[in-house]
């Protein structure tokens, strides 16, 4: 098994990191575009029903209503709402032997993704940076400095991130997954973070909140804010969450 630095997956993540100094010289790749929808014009088409009355379909309105939200009410989240979102995204739901299974699936049940929070507007929680202790279902305070602006700056100055009630920051602990799967493990930890984020966005929707996933950030700046040893653990994904501004949707079906 190669050491981390020798894995092409590891090198790939390092090589595709955004850096403030070099971002302007990043060029669009010279790769031709393709259509968004794949068509099979010659194939027989079987129309699907557009409505359903299944008991299992309680999730339908959450899926229907979820849209990336980039404007938030300046209203705090309650601790219950935050706890629900954390549980929905990474809470432990079952135990078997040495395994603690969670709400979101994970390749090999290895759970290489860690959750950090930039808490900005949460009742009974001082603004600052926190780490989610999954086993203890608790938050570890890692900095009591107001982090909203520095997180937004590290996320390529996306202003809406400074107005979130809370921003979730997901990191990958490479070895947790790659010590078993080597290079292929890089796929799994990225896939895992997608599951986690979607669970969070649906939980946000269920609590009158909304969020926007964000993958455009200066990797080294976020890692520094989170005081990470970036050789071992790095930011891979994030989401800004806040109370929904009730506005007529511009999207129709
Ligand atoms: C991997 C990924 C990265 C994203 N990064 C950003 C981002 O940095 N900034 C942003 O405003 N939106 C970001 N988005 C949100 C997309 O723009 C959004 O999902 C897309 O426009 C579709 O809209 P919807 O989420 O409302 O369905 C990201 C989404 C994904 C899945």
Please give a structural write-up:
The chain is an alpha+beta fold and 253 residues long. The chain has one domain (12-19, 70-244): NADH Oxidase (3-Layer(aba) Sandwich). Helices cover 28% and strands 22% of the residues. It is built from seven helices and nine strands, in the order ααβαβββββαβααβαβ. The strands form two sheets. Strands 1, 4, 5, 6, 7, 8 and 9 form a seven-stranded antiparallel sheet that branches. A two-stranded antiparallel sheet has the order 2-3. The longest helix is centred in the last third of the chain and has 23 residues, at 184-206. The relative contact order is 0.20. The mean pLDDT is 93. The structure holds flavin mononucleotide.
First-last Cα distance:
50 Å
Query: Total number of helical segments?
Result: 7
Distinct ligands, ions and cofactors found in the model: flavin mononucleotide
Order of helices and strands: HHEHEEEEEHEHHEHE
**Topology-level CATH name:** NADH Oxidase
Structure class: alpha+beta
Count of discrete structural domains: 1
Kindly estimate the percentage of residues that lie in beta strands according to DSSP: 15-25%
Biggest sheet details: 7 strands, antiparallel
Q: Tally of extended strands?
A: 9
Mean pLDDT: 93
Q: Class in CATH?
A: Alpha Beta
Which range best describes the helical content: under 10%, 10-25%, 25-40%, 40-55%, 55-70% or over 70%? 25-40%
Rg, rounded, reads 20 Å
